[in-house]
Amino acid sequence: MQAVLQFKVVIPARYASTRLPGKPLLDLGGKPMVVRVAERALLAGADEVLVATDHPEVLAAAERHGLRALLTRSDHATGTDRLAEVAAVAGWDDDTMVVNVQGDEPLIDPALIARTAAQLAESGAEIATVAHPLADAADFFNPNIVKVVRNAVGDALYFSRAPIPYARDHFAREAGGETLPAAMPAYRHVGLYAYRAHFLRRYSGLTPSPLEGIEALEQLRALWHGFRISVAIVDHLPAAGVDTPDDARRLQEWFKKV
Questions:
Q1: 3-state SS, residue 32
Q2: SS3 label, residue 96
Q3: Which of 108, 115, 133, 173 is deepest in the core (most CB within 10 A)?
Q4: How large is the average pLDDT for residues 161-166?
C-alpha cells in the first residue's frame, strides 16, 4: 500500500497592499479570500494548513472559520521569511515538507499544490516549484513572465526575465522574433513553492545574491548558494490571482455564481 504523502501548507497573508488594502479579508461569496485559499489547500490533502499573517483581523477571520492561524512579525522582507518563522514556532522537524500557497489565489487547483509537494518528495531537493511550457513568442519575450531552464534531472539551472534559452540561429533568421522554434524547451515559471523545513531555517542567514537584485527574483538566492530547486512541468496554468481592483471584482462576480 502506497504511503500517504505528508505535507503542510502555509498561507502567508499580509494585510497591507498598495492597490488592495486588507486584501486577505476581501469578501468572496460570504467568506474572506484567505479562507477560500485555505479551503483549496485542504482539498489538496495537506495534513495541516496554517494561515500566517501580520494582522490581528486576518488572524481572527481565519480562526472564526476553524482554521489554524499564527500572528507573525510585520517586518518580514519576503513570504519565505514568514514561512521560516512559522516553521520555527511550529517546531517542525528538518524533513517536514511545507508548501507556500499565496493568500491571493482563491481558485488555485488543489492538484497543483499536491503536485508541488510530490515533486519535492520525489526529487530529494530542498525546494520544488512548477513551470508550464511556453509556446507564444510574445510571452517568451515579456520580462513580466519569468522563464526557467532545467538540467537533465529537472533541477533549475537559472530563472530569468530574459528570453531563455535563446535560440540564436532561429531568431537571427527571424528578426522580429515572432515565433519560437519547434520543441524548444521554453518554460514559464509558476510561483508555487514547496520547501523542506531545514532550508527554511537556513534561508534567513543566506546573504542576498547580486543576481536576485538584478533580476528582482528572490529564488536566485537559493541557486546562488548551491541549493537544488526541482521543477515540475505541468500541462495547464493556474487560475489568475487577485492583484488589482479589477481582479477583485472579477472574482467577486465569479463567487456569486457558485
A1: strand
A2: coil
A3: 108
A4: 96
Q: Give the pLDDT of residue 42.
A: 94
Q: What is the DSSP string of 205-225?
A: TSPPPHHHHHHT-TTHHHHHT
pLDDT over 90 at 245, yes or no: no
Q: How many Å apart are CA 47 and CA 31, to the nearest integer? A: 22
What letter represents residue 90's amino acid? A
Q: What is the DSSP letter of 244?
A: S
d(Cα 208, Cα 149) in Å, to the nearest integer? Answer: 21
Average pLDDT over residues 171-183: 82
**What is the rounded (10 degree) CA torsion for 31, 34, 39, 43?**
160
pLDDT digits (tens, 9 = 90+) for 217-237: 999 999 999 999 999 999 988
Q: Are 212 and 220 in contact (CB under 8 A)?
A: yes
How buried is residue 207: exposed, middle or buried, by Cβ count under 10 Å (0-12/13-18/19+)? exposed
d(CA 75, CA 82): 9
Which whole number is the average pLDDT over 141-169? Answer: 96
Per DSSP, the three-state class of 69 is strand
Give the pLDDT score at 241: 83
**Peptide bond preceding 165 in cis form (omega within 30 of 0):** yes
- Cell 546562488 found at: 224
Distance CA(13)–CA(86), nearest Å, equals 12
Cα–Cα distance for residue pair 254/258, rounded to 1 Å: 7
d(CA 166, CA 186): 9
Mean of the per-residue pLDDT values of the chain: 91
